Amino acid sequence: MEESEIINGLTNAVVNGKKDQAVELANQALAAGIEPYMAVIEGLAKGMEIMGEKYEKKQAFMPHLLMASNAMYGGMDVLTPHMKTEGGSKRAVLVIGSAEGDVHDIGKNLVKTMMSAMGFEAIDLGKDVPIGKFTEAAIEHKADVISVSTLMTSTMDNMEKIVKSFTEKGIRDKVKIIVGGAPITPDYAAEIGADTSKPDAMEAAKWAKEIVKELPENRWN
Amino acid sequence: MVTYTPKERLARALTGKDVDRMPAVSFTQTATVEQMEACGASWPEANEDAQKMATLAEAGHKQVGFEAVRVPFDITAEAEFFGCQIKPGTKEQQPSVVGHVVKDMSDIEKLREYDLNQGRVSVVCDAIRILADKYGKELPIMGSMLGPFSLAQHMNGDDWFMAIMTDEAFGMALMDLTTEFNIAYAKKMAENGADTMVIIDPTASAQLIGDEFYEKFVVPAHKKIADAMRELGVTTVLHICGDTTSGLELMESSGVDAISVDQNVDVATAVGKVDKAVIVGNLDPVNVLWNKDPELVKAASQKVLDAGVGVLAPGCGIVSKTPTKNLQAMVEMAKSHKY
Ligand code: B12
Ligand SMILES: [Zn+2]
Hints:
The structure holds 2 protein chains of 2 kinds.
Chain A: H1 3-15, H2 19-31, H3 36-56, H4 62-87, E1 93-98, H5 106-117, E2 121-126, H6 132-141, E3 145-149, H7 156-168, E4 176-180, H8 186-191, E5 196-197, H9 201-211
Parallel strand pairs in A: 1-2, 1-3, 3-4, 4-5
Chain B: H1 6-14, H2 33-39, H3 50-64, E1 69-71, H4 77-81, E2 86-87, E3 96-97, H5 105-110, H6 119-135, E4 141-146, H7 148-156, H8 159-166, H9 168-191, E5 196-200, H10 206-231, E6 235-239, H11 248-252, E7 258-261, H12 267-273, E8 278-283, H13 285-290, H14 294-306, E9 311-314, H15 324-335
Parallel strand pairs in B: 1-4, 4-5, 5-6, 6-7, 7-8, 8-9
Antiparallel strand pairs in B: 2-3
Bound molecules: cobalamin and zinc ion (ZN).
């Protein structure tokens, strides 16, 4: 198969939520000597981006989105082990979770999916995450970006506490913090000392990909 | 001029009959910290104890002036009943579902036999009995429950959204289980004195699953519940969160009497989209009822009234920290509105 055929196939596999197909094509990509990073970004991630847009336009819904993300992860599981060794430099690390008291995690999972699609290694703390877990995980995994979601106004306070905990531990300048969820605005993000907020998962991932370039390489040593 | 008891008035308003004025009620959870402090019954205990639950529900009537009493205050008793792990609530926060119990068909089979005299669903029925004995002639007695689709999602976890796409037989089987449970539970609430049934099905939002899945999985389930309630003379109100505008016709096709919409929905548009169903709502529980003052609550209420709402009410569950005076402002606006 042609290189472009494989890449397009990966995109289609994600759009159609076909995990088996994504896995098979990912293996073919490796066999054909396609750069794994390319297969992820041009192939799998593009499919996820298309689905994200369809969701915004109400042409696709949660079931389709989750099927797509399932297919994407299927393909990524095949490709990412080869990315580290070949690419040389380490993948950027994302620590992600929903604020304490909040069990909504569908949006959080979408952000994780998009960030993974952008090449991040995601440490997923899940939902209703105790405040201290974020700094703990950031230190353990030498994180680059921290993403916190909340959909409820009642748990916005906890978001502020999470940002503060980074200052208290003296590691605020080692990470970029992005906060989001329906009630969160960029103004609020600024107010609590986070770096930014974005309206959706794709925007969040695009921002994260650019912003990590500002972080000094050896800051965790 | 005819006047009605609050009970008659609400039943008439929800079925599109003439009334002297608008009823003043909340179809979504009513408890607040201020009411807890005034009546001595607080979360989390009032979620577990029938007498305390009834006392706190009564506070909505006595302190705020709601012309109804309504239980429970959370939407986790149903999932808890089937064994889902629950994170306990606090005085300010409702409990939430954190664990899931159904992975496959065999798990569904194991859950087919149950006893409604157990667990918090039975506490809710006891609280309804206490309230009905005291207020049943005068006030509407509202029972509420988590709807079948959201219950299925709690039981199956996030895989549920994929299951309805990839494994229709499993999806239908779980919906059957939850729908049967909902009907039995609603009937038991009605036997104990509930005359109004609020079905809260947040995850069934057309915004999340789209029309196709909604029509296939949700409408038939809601229809069975609405039919069972109609036979008992109980009115039904369906509450789904989010922007449900595009799904309103489908929601109505289940035959519920009223549809409770949240602040993301434009009331005038909603009223125009339904045929018979009464549209209720939709004051923003956070940005209006909790965080504004009585004057602004009145102004927001006026807008909703002008848009032609069937019954003015909060758009979703009242936030526990909401000031009583804001709720009273909404009550006053409803009471002084003639159709
Ligand atoms: C599904 C749902 C649930 C499900 C959650 C299932 C799950 N596993 O997540 C269940 C039924 C469990 C649930 C429970 C409750 N819910 Co609920 N729920 C919803 C609902 C209907 C949809 C949320 C959703 O998943 N949307 C789809 C996703 C994709 O969107 P999203 O999360 O917003 O994410 C997008 C953006 O926000 C952004 N984003 C998300 N995270 C991040 C992070 C970053 C860094 C960035 C940049 C961007 C970003 O990207 C995504 C798009 O690309 C909303 C109403 C609605 N329609 O929004 C209510 C809603 C969020 N729930 C609400 C409430 C009140 C509750 C309960 C308290 C109800 C109760 N009384 O028990 C409980 C909460 C329990 C708890 N402690 O958390 C309220 C919150 C009100 C408020 N403003 O405070 C809402 C808004 C409903 C309402 N109108 O009142 N809920
Ligand atoms: Zn709601």
